């Protein structure tokens, strides 16, 4: 079956609508319908092929016939794509030099160099700071009698941790969250021109700030990651370019805090809606490690991950030609009953949990160990210091589909 044969194309059912607030509020029943309809389904509004099953998503994340980019092999014209507008150039310069949107050999070189600075030792060295900060933030929430869990705990923790790791002075940290939010707006499906304008402005401002910070660290190196990125080199003497360092720092902030903020908000709302599981967690904090993994699976912070078809590929009899775009549905894969027993049930003791919330293959999240430390630290601090934590009102959900999360989560202690 050819993807270009319109009469033979398996189409996504009508319920899949990333711009419908009802779908965004609870996409999981629609995902179940997608899985029943097939292994690959065409979605015309975004011109993408949806892949909803865990086995296919897991395999395609490792399949070198697909790539996050195509420009290492093809021009836009050769690939049948229109170049982005010239006015979007600052965003694309920033985005296209980061590991997430590069393919080998550039991805291999940059990840190897970044890994020399972003080591397990670097992450472990941050652990006491993460735990102490989580405790301080929760203390503030308790002292106030409650508040917005996102604003008071979930958001400031990962931003401060990434800023501390990068060596960004405390007085310079206020714009980091707004810059990140504006840039990440471009990762939603079919972003508006207003969204693009905000992303471009944030890209320019963030890049200029980091350029100055890099210049300072060249003169006065420290123990921070920026200094480590400047010093990193391989056996051939290769180093990161300034743009690669800037893009790496932005990627670490954006990916490192967006996912953690959303996982924290989604996770606590899931706990509030499953009081039996919350009670079990309060009774036994030994469940925290498996709880973190289950909360990441149960309401996935990153719902969709895109790849380009670089070489023709066939899925279940459907041939996807070079130039097609594949949208792997992480949220659906994480609820696939072929892999997860009773996937719609929150089970904080779940042991067999091969979720793909951190992706897989060469683009597996380099910050996953740090994210796990942050999520466990905030979870423990809230369990210990706010043992009666409860919702004060219905949360407000962000309208985004791709990066799934709450806008507010009012709580009482």
Write the layout of secondary structure elements.
Elements: H1 21-25, H2 28-37, E1 41-43, E2 48-51, H3 54-60, E3 66-67, H4 89-96, H5 106-117, H6 120-143, E4 146-148, H7 149-154, H8 156-166, H9 176-184, H10 193-219, H11 225-231, H12 242-273, H13 275-283, H14 288-298, E5 304-309, E6 313-315, E7 318-320, E8 325-329, H15 330-333, H16 368-385, E9 390-391, E10 396-397, E11 406-408, E12 410-412
Parallel strand pairs: 2-8
Antiparallel strand pairs: 1-2, 3-5, 4-12, 5-8, 6-7, 9-12, 10-11
Helix pairs in contact: 4-10, 4-12, 5-11, 6-8, 6-16, 8-12, 9-10, 9-12, 10-12, 12-14, 12-16, 14-16
State the CATH class.
Mainly Alpha
Number of strands: 12
**Uncertain parts:** none
SS-based class: alpha+beta
Cα-atom radius of gyration: 21 Å
C-alpha geometry: globular
